[in-house]
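call fold(seq) -> tokens
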Amino acid sequence: MNSTVDNLKDVLVRVQQEVAKVIIGQDDVVRKALVAIFTGNHALIEGVPGIAKTLLVRTLARTLGCEFSRIQFTPDLMPADILGTNVFNLQRSEFMLVKGPIFTTFLLADEINRAPAKTQSALLQAMQERHVTIDRDTHPLSLNFTVFATQNPIEYEGTYPLPEAQKDRFMLKITMNCPSRDEEYLLGKRMLDDNSPEAALERGDVQQVISADELLRLRKSLNEITVRDELLGYIVDIVRRTRNDDGVLVGAGPRATQAFILSARAWAAIEGRDFITPDDVKAVALGVLEHRLILRPENEIEGLTVAEVVQRILQEVTVPR
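ret:
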């Protein structure tokens, strides 16, 4: 392995160690969040309330030396509440921009599906171009700008489904499941010792591993991770297979192929390799495809899940040697 990729691996390991001081378990979730960050993309996080979605993003921001903002999405939230607005300054007799919470590095869009489509779409330009337009003036965002949007999987009353164009801009969907008994016991033990995860973060137990500038530099080193032609073909075959599966109404588009390549490279770096393998592709497959596939209604009624469809496709597509 070359020194640049080796350095990237070391940083990823250290970040995971620091995050583990606050987040109990959830190793796969942390890895996938790092995949989104180090590839310069965005992630949709789904999990029940109180499972540490916000705490995860705050902790990652601390370890990576990045700013953090949180927006609570509600039905009455307006685009200006996210982007900001121009306010007339009487003393200067001119309009001045009051920046909204989107002017940050790591943005947590909490319960994004509680706001109407007009408000959700305010994020689209920022997610795609890292710019926002306010009153016809365009303003740049951080090159490390990353959106983590959360959804509650069990409460859909009063929610607005994300438009397909917006879901496709999230590279990964990350599902946070409840901790195991041992992990939940450890959480309870920490609470008894007045050492809750939130307290550990506030006390400064989590150390900054790199700066925002170093993050930008390390991200470029992913280009040095080799993707063989056979594995590129494997990825393309998986994505194209979703478009003619009997259980799928709408399959994944070309952006899914790009997401596969980027995320598989980052996963290989986490594993300490400078080349990807079929296992890397399989490890990120559900995260890449789950929010991009729309199942046929009759199959959903029968209880078919996207996870089952993805698993079947992985079994059917020939794995390169």
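The chain has a mean pLDDT of 89.
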